[in-house]
Amino acid sequence: MRVTAGKFKGRNLIDNKFEHIRPTADMVKQAVFNKLQFSLNGARVLDLCAGTGALGIEALSRGAKEVVFVDKDARSCTLIKQNLAKLGVEAKVVKIGAIEACEILKYQKFDIILFDPPYKSELYEKMLDKIAQTRILADDGIFVVEQAKEDKYNWNSAFEIQDEKIYGIKKITYFSFREKYAKEI
To answer: Fewest CB within 10 A of the end CB: N or C in the chain?
Structure first.
């Protein structure tokens, strides 16, 4: 597991040593961040269900101003802190569930929210509802969701799918607020 581009390009991260973490493959991570490249410079990023921290670290490497890492598992939080220390980077790591984190952060705005929960979890639809309710995603922000390719959800109508790509067994969906919704609130 390594950083694929930016100032930390090629640097290895401490690999997943726990069964509860399913890190995003380097090829998929590179594809996601190539798509986000014009949105990253100076961005505030929220990495929900952060696992190893690899997605948020990739964002920092490619120019994000700030990343807040959130995971409810203490082992994941320790691993994220170890990976940040290995790169000499300071960032906020919060041990809390993704839904609760949105409530706590509701007075902040993030340009990009990365969301990679355990597949088949009940968090997918709840997460979009919570983001619409708390408005933590900037009006022109991007919400990136990783899920199993066969999964189908009833997404909150405040969002529209900007793009969707399948990579092997996973699907990456890019959401933004519907223009009408962003103007109403």
So the answer is: C
